[in-house]
Design brief:
This protein has 476 residues and is an alpha/beta fold. It has 14 helices and 21 strands. The protein has a six-stranded mixed β-sheet, with helices on both faces. Strands 9-10-16-13-12-17 form a six-stranded antiparallel beta barrel. Helix 12 packs parallel to helix 13. The two termini are 14 Å apart. It binds guanosine-5'-diphosphate (GDP). Guanosine-5'-diphosphate binds next to helix 4.
Length: 476
């Protein structure tokens, strides 16, 4: 139980309370102390093990060299706000799709493909249709490497700005090659050469200066040099990446967007990464599962299969998966369901664990930095002492920025209702000459609610005062 663990940790020289987080190393030490071997696994490792138990793996192309075929590069557009990311994505779409498809695009599904002639050959490119590095980073954080090339847009009349630098950092951290689009060159105040100079400071040296980054001057507004930009992307991909995938395996990909559609139910836009997805396939996407009932492309047309780098809307999941979730085809519906169920259970556990991390007097310091309010619930053996205690507590002289609030008070033992309220409002419970009911103690342990017992008023005052001043040391 928690107090035994706290005691064991104390013996190991770690001063912690039951609601505090400890490092993986400490956990392992604690395990040894208690006669267990603790293995700390990352969520990714855990998921890999889960898939392995079904004889599945995500992220590897099956077969050998001969099974791999060229696939289009997947491109993300990043850059500072108002530098023209959205306009550029629109402009590429209308320039390229408009030509091929009368009527153009009818749907924004989160990604689209265009075809452009480079060196006399038709080349396809996939663009992620949500600009900004937040989406990019969110997906990467979830282990989904969804982008091959980053286009960093810099407005020629504005120059390198904080989010430009952030975008560069994100792309470089992900080891994704960069093409720089120097935008708004239609403007009189445009200084494209200045941009080149600035970008050099971040390790992006233009080819014309002897570096290996391609810079293209464009106007997203006027549709100027869009073809050159597409060419630069293709050439950069060819020069630094070997983009190939096995189209002849069960499909795997990443969900880049998902929502609940009124008529169609859960809809997920999936970027296929390897294999070919077909109508009728059993799929699991994050903690959602189902069977591909329909697939729709960015033109709103139904498709029956989708090959690597192809984005498609998938209809047929029984619930909405998360953006950044991996999708994979499995042999049987049952397997898809089992994997989804296990992931779901894990997600619920993780959520529950997080919600248990309530406030205790010891971590008050950091808590107060966020909320600057300490909520208390006072229970005492008679109304006189409860009142006296409350009055004394409210009299504590504290920093004006910190507030002490008694949200509930009463006579009698600490009950489950008290614990519930404390959990819901991040409160600490004070029991004066009373104890907690057995069930309430259990619940407080489970929920991580701090209950403090006192029988001397000034002791209670001293401790609360010390906690408020951030001086309280853990008690064992
Ligand atoms: P985002 O925040 O990076 O997505 O930027 P937007 O695409 O929304 O563009 C911001 C503003 O700059 C809009 O008013 C655009 O019309 C304008 N803009 C974008 N590209 C160009 C361009 O090439 N030339 C000019 N003159 N304006 C542009």
């Amino acid at each position: 139980n928690p107090s035994q663990l706290v005691q064991a940790l104390f013996n190991l020289g770690e001063m912690v309370t039951a609601t505090q987080s400890v490092t993986p190393e400490t956990l392992q030490l604690l395990g040894e102390e208690m006669g267990f071997k603790v293995q700390v696994v990352s969520p990714e490792d855990e998921d890999r093990e889960l898939l392995e138990s079904f004889d599945l793996s995500f992220g590897e192309d099956e077969g050998g060299e001969d099974d791999l075929e060229r696939r289009p590069p997947v491109v993300t557009v990043m850059g500072h706000v108002d530098h023209g990311k959205t306009r550029l994505l629109d402009s590429i779409r209308s320039a390229k799709v408009g030509e091929a498809e009368a009527g153009g695009i009818t749907q924004h599904i989160g990604a689209y493909q265009v075809t452009s002639e480079v060196d006399g050959v038709d080349r396809t490119l996939t663009f992620i249709d949500t600009p900004g590095h937040e989406a990019f980073t969110a997906m990467r954080a979830r282990g989904a490497k969804s982008t091959d090339i980053a286009v960093i847009v810099v407005a020629a009349d504005d120059g390198v700005m904080p989010q430009t630098v952030e975008a560069i950092n994100h792309a470089q951290a992900a080891e994704v090659p960069i093409v720089v689009a120097v935008n708004k060159i239609d403007k009189e105040s445009a200084q494209p050469d200045k941009i080149r100079g600035q970008m050099t400071e971040y390790g992006l040296v233009p080819e014309e200066y002897g570096g290996d980054t391609m810079f293209v001057d464009i106007s997203a507004k006027q549709g100027l040099n869009i073809d050159s930009l597409l060419e630069a992307i293709v050439l950069t991909a060819d020069a630094s990446l070997d983009l190939r995938a096995n189209p002849d395996m069960d499909a795997q990909g990443v969900a880049i967007e998902a929502h609940l559609d009124r008529g169609r139910g859960p809809v997920a836009t999936v970027l296929i990464q390897r294999g070919t997805l077909r109508v009728g396939d059993s799929i699991v996407a994050g903690d959602a599962y189902g069977r591909v009932r329909r697939m729709v492309d960015e033109h709103g047309d139904d498709v029956t299969e989708a090959s690597p780098s192809r984005p498609v809307q998938v209809i047929g999941l029984t619930s909405v998966c998360g953006a950044g979730d991996t999708l994979m085809v499995v042999e049987e519906d049952r397997t898809a369901r089992q994997i989804a169920d296990r992931r779901n259970a894990r997600k619920r556990n993780a959520l529950a664990a997080r919600s248990r991390r309530r406030i205790s007097l010891e971590d008050l310091d950091s808590h107060l930095k966020e909320t600057s309010q300490l909520n208390l619930i006072i229970k005492g053996d008679n109304s006189g002492t409860v009142e006296a205690l409350e009055e004394a507590l409210m009299g504590i002289e504290i920093d004006d920025e910190v507030q002490l609030r008694v949200i509930d008070r009463g006579v009698g033992a600490v009950t489950e209702t008290n614990v519930n309220l404390a959990a819901a409002s991040d409160a600490v419970i004070i029991g004066f000459n009373v104890r907690a009911e057995g069930k309430a103690t259990e619940m407080a342990n489970r929920e991580g609610v701090d209950i403090r017992y006192y029988s001397i008023i000034y002791q209670a005052i001293d401790e609360i005062e010390a906690a408020l001043k951030g001086m309280l040391k853990p008690i064992y």
